[in-house]
Amino acid sequence: MELRILGSHNMESRDTRFEAHLIDGILALDAGDPTLSLTFEEQENIRAIILTHRHFVHLRDLLPFGLTMRDSGVTVDVYRIKDTLEFVAEKLMDGSLYPPFLEFLSPETPIYSMHEIEPLKDFQVLDYTVKAVPVPHAMPAVGFMISSDDVSGFYTGDAGGESQMPGSMQPPMFC
Predict the structure, then answer these.
(1) What gap in Å lies between CA 7 and CA 128, rounded to an integer?
(2) Does some domain include residue 39?
(3) Is 141 in contact with 119 (CB distance < 8 Å)?
(4) What is the CATH number of the domain that holds 27?
């Protein structure tokens, strides 16, 4: 499992980027800044995104990334908890800022397919087993335990390493 840090800040400058990480070139952890950090070709390799919560710095690039994917013919799977789904669907992707990517190009082949996840239940994303784990934050938020083959790691989002992870789940921390 190869982790690439695209951004890890809540402020942006010439030298810093919003929160976004990439596993094996295909799985994005948050979508704060993949478009400024990746070439178009690298962006088009992304097949799934998992979102920790609805803060802008974690999902801002869903809109410009959607434009990048528009002509690819690929639907990108986005995994998130209910609170984040409601915000993204009602505020960010309602069609008032950019095309409504949950329906565009067509309802049969949207740019994004949203998947609601439940905390503490395993789910599959591509070839990874993922578990959302609640983390302390100002709004509903989760970190993610991500496993592939014999490698596991935990991505905290904004929680600074704190979580409600059961004692039996002690993977290395991604960030």
Answers:
(1) 22
(2) yes
(3) no
(4) 3.60.15.10
